[in-house]
Design goal:
binds adenosine-5'-monophosphate-propyl ester; alpha/beta; 30 strands; 631 residues
Length: 631
């Protein structure tokens, strides 16, 4: 039986009184091969930065997420897979999950993949994606899942950065009635980088694909050739579990590294506390495994807790806006966890798509990935949740491994849009520009003043970047790059990123990445990208583009530039607005004034502030007129 801990006040009090006892309890949720006697060894001092949790403990993550439940409840459902095509679904029992994970692990081992090797997963939302993650964990390999909406170019750079030896993919992915050429993208990526000696492909659509002899294998064939049983590797708590690339304020995505014991303990603890599921409940996180939400709250958290987790191959709006609610009725789903962007896109199609289905099974509705606007929160609560179901607005990041600030069911629900209070064990502060803590109500930069087990340990291959990015702005603290407000009741409201990262449909994107994709086009001299408010996506991507001398704008240029970004990064980064401009607002020292570009894109031109320090102030009016034409 998994230990549960759902009383926030009790846990918070325990943490205050005896933090080590609290953290020991969090660790004891897991099955350890050697129970850790050490709790943590952490310093946020940038000259001596180190973060270690439960370091003398040993365990295997797959044993925790699979074997212990397969022994206790072999016939219960571990994964409920819901296919893209309405009406298709499959239940995978814990026994089957164990069987499949062992097979996949043995296929990897048989081809020389082992402890510490990096394996890229570029997969659709099929059970094999979870098998692959857990198979890596079983043998001590480190997975790095790349979202299927990234291009071959982006895939290649991730393969190269982590030095992957194997790629697991599918012939094609299916999403919203369309297909994604995953294996062809892998082939294109592998034409650019070396080092990959195994490509394992899951057959999904049956599309003809290209195979390289001696490198490429079908999963369904390879699994027939390996034994069913695969022992688990004994891993140190601090051994890496996975790398997940995420965007920052430079052009190059960072490989966020998470380790085994602390990450899993935190994913398990927060999943239990926030969603409060019991065995037999059906829990649905509608994210993609390509993002951290899919890692912690589709795969690791719920499976560690022995909870039936839904894997959904499709999209909320196909074939129509009733898809979520139809599946909730059909499978008696108890928890739905999704992003505000999905909620907003469903809202606009009207309530009848929701109300015609029975949603009485729902106990908790979760939100993640971006600030939820009060209107969307209310609709989620009142229409989707019939005014009865609590909303948990969970704030966290790829870097934090699991949720850090969130309401939990049972809290009074009076504040649409507030992430409310830190989880037990989490110490936040709001700092002003001089790094002084803001006491009581106020706005500031959100930092974590102490560590938690699910914290990332480093940027893969670039520890200095880890230190510079997170521990330099406010020495002694982890800086989230988010701004936040604390109200009179002490509740926290996330106000959004304060760096050059934008949040498009809950997908995190560095404006610098989009800029470097644009300038790779032969006609582009310079580009500046900002986010602007978008009704559905939360933020849209607005690109100011300066052409090289001798190039003029033409009808298909916008299309070409959009395609350029899709090629360099992928469809997830497709620009919404491309404004061809004669120049950019720059200071006399040549620095682009992004604040002005953001205001122009937002249409907030009455509050541009002081523009007199610009090298060419007259460019501002030209940009404003141009922007009006784009809106
Ligand atoms: O700005 C915050 C926003 O998403 C960022 C983290 O993005 P990512 O690493 O992709 O992880 C997304 C899933 C955890 C944060 O810096 N964010 C995430 N959740 C919320 C949020 N903003 C407001 N409210 C949230 N609940």
């Amino acid at each position: 039986m998994i230990k549960t801990s759902r009383d926030r006040m009790t846990d918070a009090a325990l943490f205050e009184e005896a933090p080590d006892v609290f953290w020991k309890g969090v660790a004891e949720r897991l099955k350890w091969m050697t129970l850790p006697s050490e709790i943590s060894d952490v310093s946020f001092d940038k000259d001596d930065l180190h973060i270690r949790w439960y370091a003398d403990g040993t365990l295997n993550v797959a044993e925790n997420c699979v074997d212990r439940h397969a022994e206790a409840r072999p016939d219960d459902t571990a994964i409920l897979w819901i296919g893209d095509e309405p009406g298709t679904s499959k239940e995978i029992s814990w026994r089957e999950l164990h069987h499949e994970v062992c097979h996949m692990a043995n296929v990897l081992k048989a081809r020389g993949v082992g402890r510490g090797d990096r394996v890229i997963l570029y997969m659709p939302m099929i059970p094999e994606a979870a098998y692959a993650m857990l198979a890596c964990a079983r043998i001590g390999a480190v997975h790095s899942v790349v979202f299927g909406g990234f291009s071959p170019e982006a895939l290649a750079s991730r393969i190269e950065d982590c030095g992957a030896v194997a790629v697991i993919t599918a012939d094609e992915g299916r999403r919203g009635g369309k297909t994604v050429p995953l294996k062809a993208n892998v082939d294109a990526a592998l034409a650019r980088v070396s080092g990959v000696r195994l490509v394992l492909t899951v057959q999904v659509t049956g599309k003809d694909i290209h195979f390289v002899h001696g490198r490429d294998y079908w999963w369904h064939e390879a699994r027939e050739e390996v034994p069913t049983d695969c022992p688990t590797e004994e891993m140190s708590a601090e051994d890496p579990l996975f790398i997940l690339y995420t965007s920052g304020s430079t052009g190059k995505p960072k490989g966020v590294l998470h380790t085994s014991g602390g990450y899993l303990a935190w994913a398990s603890y927060t999943h239990d506390m926030i969603f409060q599921c019991d065995p037999g409940d059906v829990y649905w996180c509608a994210a993609d495994v390509g993002w951290i939400t899919g890692h912690s709250y589709i795969v690791y958290g719920p499976l560690a807790n022995g909870i039936t987790t839904v894997m959904f191959e499709g999209v909320p709006t196909w074939p129509d806006a009733g898809r979520f609610w139809a599946e909730i009725e059909r499978h008696k789903v108890n928890v739905l966890y999704t992003a505000p962007t999905a909620i907003r896109s469903l809202m606009k199609d009207g309530d009848s798509f929701v109300t015609k289905y029975d949603r009485s099974s729902l106990k908790v509705l979760g939100s993640v990935g971006e600030p939820i606007n009060p209107e969307a929160w209310r609709w989620y609560h009142e229409v989707a949740g019939d005014g009865k179901v609590p909303i948990v607005d969970t704030w966290w990041q790829t870097e934090t491994g699991g949720v850090l600030i969130s309401p939990i069911p049972g809290d009074p629900m009076t504040k649409p849009g507030a992430a409310t209070k830190p989880m037990p064990g989490i110490k936040t502060a709001l700092l002003d520009q001089d790094a002084k803590p803001i006491e009581g109500a106020g706005n500031g930069s959100l930092v974590l003043t102490s560590s938690w087990p699910g914290q990332m340990r480093t940027v893969y291959g670039d520890h200095q970047r880890f230190i510079d990015t997170y521990f330099s702005a406010f020495p002694g603290n982890y800086f989230t790059s988010d701004g936040a407000r604390r109200d009179e009741d002490g509740d926290i409201w996330i106000t959004g990123r304060v760096d050059d990262v934008i949040n498009v449909s809950g997908h995190r994107m560095g404006t610098a990445e989009v800029e470097s994709a644009l300038v790779a086009h032969e006609a582009v001299a310079e580009a500046a990208v900002v986010g602007y408010p978008h009704d559905i996506k939360g933020q849209g991507i607005w690109c100011y583009v300066i052409l090289k001398a001798g190039h003029t704008s033409h009808d298909s240029l916008g299309k070409e530039l959009r395609q350029q970004v899709r090629t360099e990064i992928g469809p997830v980064a497709t620009p919404d607005v491309i404004q061809i401009a004669p120049g950019l607002p720059k200071t006399r020292s040549g620095k682009i004034m992004r604040r002005i570009l953001r205001k122009i894109a937002e249409g907030e031109t009455s509050s541009l502030g002081d523009t007199s320090t610009l090298a060419e102030p007259e460019i501002v009016d030209v940009l404003i007129r141009g922007a009006e034409g784009e809106r």
